Description:
By secondary structure, the protein is α/β, with parallel strands linked by helices. It folds into two domains: about 1-150, Leucine Aminopeptidase, subunit E, domain 1 (3-Layer(aba) Sandwich), CATH 3.40.220.10; about 165-485, Aminopeptidase. The chain contains 14 helices and 19 strands. The chain has helices at about 30-40, 75-90, 110-125, 155-175, 185-195, 205-215, 215-220, 275-290, 335-350, 365-370, 380-395, 405-410, 430-435, 475-485, and strands spanning about 1-5, 15-20, 50-55, 60-65, 100, 145-150, 200-205, 230-235, 245-255, 295-305, 315-320, 325-330, 355-360, 375-380, 400, 420, 445-450, 455, 465-470. The strands form four sheets. Strands 7-8-10-9-13-17-14-15 form an eight-stranded mixed β-sheet, sandwiched between helices. Strand 9, helix 8 and strand 10 (about 295-305) form a beta-alpha-beta unit. Helix 2 (about 75-90) runs parallel beside helix 3. The longest helix is centred in the middle third of the chain and has 23 residues, at about 155-175. It binds ligand BES, manganese (II) ion (MN) and zinc ion. Zinc ion binds near residues 274 and 335.
Amino acid sequence: MKIQFSQSRPQVARLVAQVTDKGKVPAGLDKAMTEGMESARFKGNAGQVFEGFVEREGQVLRLAIVGVGDKNDEARLANCEKAGAALAAKYQTSGVKQFELDLSDSGLSSEEAASVLLGVRLRNWRYDIYRTRMKDEQKVTLESATVVGAPEGTEAAWDDMAHVATGVEFTRELITEPANILYPESFVARCQQRFEGTGAELIVLDEAEMEKLGMGSLLGVGLGSERESRILAIRWNGGSSGEAPTAFVGKGVTFDTGGISIKPGPGMEDMKWDMGGAGAVAGAMLALVSRKAKANLVGVMGLVENMPDGKAQRPGDVVTSMSGQTIEVLNTDAEGRLVLADALHWTQEEFQPARILDFATLTGAMIVALGHEFAGVFANDDQLAKDLHEAGEATGDRNWRMPIGPAYDKLINSPIADMKNIGGKAAGSITAAQFLQRFIANGTPWAHVDVAGMVWSDKPGRTWGKGATGYGVRLLDRFVRNTLES
Length: 486
Ligand code: BES
Ligand code: MN
Ligand code: ZN
């Protein structure tokens, strides 16, 4: 959606929104409004909306008052987002195309105002391109917001945040696309389109090149698919020249049937978003590149489709990864780690990164452990885990550290190869992380973020409707701001 700034009231806007702190009433409101708020028990809690009608200069306007909660609430920025999101949710399909956001007496700082706008924009996103027979009342009507009376500095703060919103939206788009539309090659093509002219460098490996590099682990996963596998790297050198980049690596399984170890039918459609890690990396890179982040970065995506077929790999097969380590594939449904093994190794060989953060919808067990509130973080470096946690708390992309160690590592030893791709029943998310760690060389600082419970939501949330959340983009953007740019 479009967000613009203006010095004066846009004549066309018949809906005006104002924000208010908890327990306060905006000055100069009509009696019908103040008494209406009272009788509707409007308190100004974050995200609470009261709507009334007022007459201004002979014109009847819809006036929406939205609460941003207590001024001293430690979740102040999140509350501001919530207020913006509440406005978008209420008016998205209301018939209103444009509204005026009057911040003149809001008392908000520029940062708080930008948070309100971020909430409006992110919550208003929806992807309806395949719905050709929607009734008018179902369609999104809200297209733009015009901000009037913004505190000084809001426009600059928003210019910056708008790039982050663009990244979140791109991630959501990639995650929402079905697997017949979005497969490894079309994922690459879409990124090539979106990054054109941004100054980022895109590197693509096809199957022949991966074969030459010895990526038997990644390629094994794609054997059953008619779609060719790809590796995509997006490089951005916005930092000091010669400084080692920070690498983001994403699991991009564009559809995960489980392969020969096939998954049960009900719910299998969810596995179109098994590329959510790669989607987060692509969107984060778009945000960072668009806002010209002052950091050297590379985003690497392992793109593969996992299908059952006469050519598919079998349980018990032994594959050789690019690192030379061999893997007994006991379960073809534990494919994400096989893809990441080669993507992680190649990333280190090719870019010698200073640190690596990988994102993957890796295990169902992660959802059992943490539900949909926190992603799981597995790290060999305390500072990295701490930085991720802080960035998560600040942006709402929350994450919680999980343990790793030698006692878990030995659970994936194999009698026939260097390791097997599954552990036992216990600690499924941890043994998956241990597997990945075997592909991290020289103690490079590394964090694995299992986002299985975070990329998709069955119900509307903070700044999203049902569906793709865009998890990871704001986390990485903030991580880069806090640790590489300051
Ligand atoms: N993509 C799945 C994990 C997943 C499941 C993510 C549900 C989101 C929702 C992954 O490839 C997988 O199938 N993992 C298996 C591992 C098992 C075979 C060791 C799992 O979690 O069941
Ligand atoms: Mn799987
Ligand atoms: Zn998977």
